[in-house]
Amino acid sequence: MADQNVPPHRPRDDRGWDGRRHPAADGYPTVSYDAPGHPAASHGEHGYPPAGVSRGPQWVGPEGLGRQAFHQPAGSGLPTLDDDGDGDRGRVGRRRALVALGGTAAVVAGGAALAMSPQVRGLFGADTAAGDATGATVTDGTPARPSGQQPSTVRTYTEQNESYMGSRAGAALKKNSPSGGRTFSGPAAAAAETPVTVKTVLAKDPVRHLASRATFGATPKVLADIRRMGIDAWVRQQLDPEKIAPSAAELKLAELPTLKLTSQQLRDQREQLNERGAQPEKEMVDGTLARQIWSERQLYEVMVDFWNDFLHVAADFDGGEAYRNSFDRDVVRKHAMGSYPDMLVAANKHPALLLYLNQNDSRADAVNENLARENLELYSVGVDGGYTEKDVRQAALLQTGRGVDDGKYVFRDERHYRGKVKILGFSHPNESADPKKADQVIDAYITYIALHPSTARYVARSLATRFVSDTPPKSLVDRLAKIYTVNKGSVKPLLMSLFSSSEFWAAVGQKVRRPMEYLVATYRTLGVQPQAGPGFRQGDSKRTAFAQGLRQVHDKLRELGQYPMGQPTPDGYPDVYVAWTSAGTMVNGWNEAADLIAGNRTQFTYTRPEKLVAKPPTTAGAYVDALAQRLVHQKLSARERNLILGVAGVPATAKVDATFDGAVTAVARAILASPQHHLR
Q1: DSSP, res 455
Q2: Which of 182, 325, 519, 562 is buried deepest, with most CB atoms within 10 A?
């Protein structure tokens, strides 16, 4: 395993992924390199700031305000905030309070700052493949450079998470992770019997914890549903998403006309779609955001997002406009709650993955190893899963012949290598002249690596990282790996075991929302509705208000550095908080929250800020308490309450009206900048 203290990077190449990085909307520099693979001198060793140099504000950790490294130097501060025309009253206090509250949450933004530089492994020349790929004689490339490649330096989804956790901040977080653990008879029993001993600013309320982790953000309705149904019944319902009725927003997805089109229809209608300004790969992202915000099938959508990072195909790759929508529908969504081996087999016969990783170019006499390598390195056993470069070469030979013709998956027998192969523990003579049987051998190999013990552990560790902690306890990973193996990669038993574990319920406050999760959670907690508001004016005759609003959300997330299926390289977004460290992006998120509170995106309908609390208290302190309960579903500490009162420039005992004397938008934004909203 490579040095985990070094942010992952992949050398650039002229082929395959284009290496585009998300725009640095915050104005903060991303990691630069003086030469390929070498951080610029100003960044210090490993691309991190030199000793004594701050990247920006202090971070929010599970222990709350100001508990992590990288504190602000004197005289620095956040970018100037828009005060929404509230006048001078409370302006100084507002800025000071926002810096104190949200400046500690810089952790949630700006993935570009430490994003992986893409590596593209291009086509390599090969002599005619023949005979026995397991023998001493090299059957591809040359003896001096057998595969035309060097061992990859890419991190898997889990590996890159671990590489970030090798930082000083990651080491601090590890000290706060729950240790030990056991499995109970069900989620409710685990919740009832598990004490929360870690330090956190979040309420140690199991219902709130479940709603925060198993959805894209708690809402009053979700919390009420869990309490009414009980934890076990709610989890069981979420594990059967097909039985949950579609929401009003999901029915409105018909307003995104390309979502239901097949790849063939998208290809056939390309000119007409272009004339209408329809962009299928973007509408797919728009639709995904709509589901994350408004679907009642929240756990399903969380798992769709998880698999889109784990088995990642970028939305914007060359060909994504025709094929990525189908990959989302027919591979990820179809199997998200089903079987990972089935998902991986389906992915390896889908045009999107075959084109994204250049498998269409691979033939027995000119092998391209991109897909074969990523199948091992990213999508199954992991870079530390026990395979060798020889395994990669033999897998690449075995998978030759698979490709795309006229927009459909094909197996080209004339391009397929025939001869004995051995990859990890899988071996096969691979000599059938029957194309169907030759193709089935590849399926058998893909199924084999999907069920490999290293894959079981890799999936288990990734799931535990997503749902439990940036440093998941070994006890939980070990148990989940066994569940994966016993159930042959089925997803539902894994999730039920995870929710029945003490480690899950003990890990309150141990995850931080990434930029997309923060913004989606903000839409959810504010109760934004998908219907157009009364102030909407139709300015685009080609798209409905709903479609326009979703595209604006999508574009905002591009600015923030994270959107569904947005990572250009095949490793997916990292899921540990030290990977997201831009103060500017954090402030951008706050300002978007202010726009939502004020109802500025008129394509949607909003609850007026003075109506967020049904019966607003008449004193400022009590009103802040009620607004916090409504927006972040718990009380704030006395210190945080006083900071937010500073936003309005009034004491707790001051009399206020329902508009907080005109400051309710600023007060609500400050609450949404608190650690309680940044943590999940």
Answers
A1: H
A2: 519
